[in-house]
Write a structure and sequence with these properties.
alpha+beta; six-stranded antiparallel beta sheet; seven-stranded antiparallel beta sheet; single chain; 4 helices; 261 residues; 15 strands
Length: 261
């Protein structure tokens, strides 16, 4: 019996070591998104922007801003699940009309072990997980809307300029308020800019953490106040004006050779 116990213990140690190795293998990036062959149109930088916002647009695009109808943000990183930090690859797809779709793959040895597909369309949020679908919660819809505006502010600021209901409000040399529409009315996001690079660094919003909550919680760059960071996202590619499909029937971007998103 003692020998069997020792063998089982050794097997568990080997399995733990194997899992440790598997969690350190990065997945391959998603296949590149097809880019438009024709030159994209551009618009002049609007006048009257707050100083840090104007500096941000110039640092990102130059003197003219591309006319953007959609944007695809792809990359890799890590995500914590059940206390374990998994390698991750992701693709965020945004389109005019205030719609987005997000696809995540948590991996081990570079192979998917969990897939998550999320949709925000027509002011409604739907999350597809391996163990079920969550949708129809108004507070989740509200939270997803603020997430969309935050991702535009961080990664696709050109898309904000096509929205007539979006306004930048000055605060100081490194901060501005982004006023955005939601179903409940206007909301204000706090955008903080890096004084050295001029790029957007942090976006803060007040959101519902759970559907049962009666009060909102501060949310900064996808991290809830008081919580440890649950994921890191290393942006490897941003493609503007790609053809995207944010409908619920759209497939995930899981196929490594898949060109369409």
């Amino acid at each position: 019996m003692k020998k069997a116990t020792i063998n089982v213990g050794g097997l568990l140690v080997q399995l733990a070591g194997l899992a440790w190795v598997g969690l350190r293998v990065r997945p391959a990036p998603f296949a590149p998104v097809d880019r438009q062959p024709e030159p994209a149109q551009s618009i002049a930088l609007p006048e009257g922007l707050p100083a840090p916002v104007e500096r941000y647009y110039r640092a990102t695009y130059g003197e003219r801003v591309p006319a953007v109808n959609s944007g695809v943000v792809s990359g890799r990183g890590t995500m914590r699940l059940f206390g374990i930090m998994f390698p991750l690859r992701f693709r965020f797809m945004h389109e005019a009309g205030r719609n987005f779709r997000s696809y995540f793959e948590l991996t081990m040895f570079g192979r998917p072990v969990m897939k998550v597909n999320e949709h925000y369309r027509d002011d409604k949020f739907r999350q597809e997980l391996p163990f079920g679908v969550e949708e129809g919660e108004p507070k989740n819809d509200h939270s997803a809307a603020l997430r969309m505006w935050s991702e535009w502010a961080l990664w696709l600021p050109a898309m904000l300029l096509r929205e007539p209901d979006v306004r930048w409000v000055p605060v100081d040399d490194t901060m501005a308020l982004l006023t955005v529409p939601t179903q409940e009315g206007e909301e204000h996001l706090v955008v903080r800019f890096d004084p050295a690079t001029g790029k957007a660094q942090h976006v803060e919003a007040m959101k519902y953490k759970h559907p049962a909550d009666t009060a909102k919680t501060l949310w900064v760059n996808a991290v809830w106040f008081g919580d440890m960071p649950w994921a890191s996202f290393d942006i490897e590619d941003v493609t503007l004006n790609a053809e995207v499909d944010t409908s619920v029937d759209a497939k995930g971007a899981q196929a490594q050779g898949e060109r369409r998103v």
